Amino acid sequence: MPNHTLYAMLFGKIYQCYLDKAERKGRTREDVDQIICWLTGYDQAGLRSQIEQKNDLETFFVQAPAIHPNSSLVKGVVCGIRVEDVNDPLMRKIRILDKLIDELAKGKAMNKILR
Questions:
Q1: CA 55, 42, 26, 103 torsion: positive or negative?
Q2: End-to-end CA distance of the chain
Q3: Which of 48, 60, 85, 112 is the most buried (most CB within 10 A)?
Q4: φ, ψ dihedrals at 18, nearest 5°
């Protein structure tokens, strides 16, 4: 499957990309962390642990305490793909997180991002 490469990417590397994107647009690490914790149910310590353990994206999402029930409200296009049309559950979670970070970088208010 072509998605295996993405699933095997280290979450810490993806996290750094999210952070760089947000900070270029004047947003903070706290904003990025808030979004990730909202979506996945990780607390700050759990998020840091995932990065320190060098877990891949698949492990990061499999070990997530609780995907937020309102994550299904995230709609739109990210990387040319409509989030709500993604059938693979893991890929959908990845795309939802991508979309949320995109919204943050575009200046959307946090209360709108977190639905």
A1: positive
A2: 32
A3: 60
A4: -60, -45
CA angle 34, 56, 114 (to 5 degrees): 20
pLDDT digits (tens, 9 = 90+) for 49-87: 999 999 999 999 999 999 999 999 999 999 899 999 999
CA distance 43 to 34: 9
Instruction: Give 30-46 pLDDT, tens digit per residue.
Output: 999 999 999 999 999 99
Whole-angstrom Cα distance, residue 38 to residue 25?
Answer: 21
CA angle 84, 1, 80 (to 5 degrees): 35
Q: Which domain holds residue 95?
A: 4-108
What's 64's domain CATH number?
1.10.8.290
The domain tally of the chain equals 1
In a domain, 114, yes or no: no
d(CA 109, CA 33): 15
Cβ atoms of 105 and 25 closer than 8 Å: yes
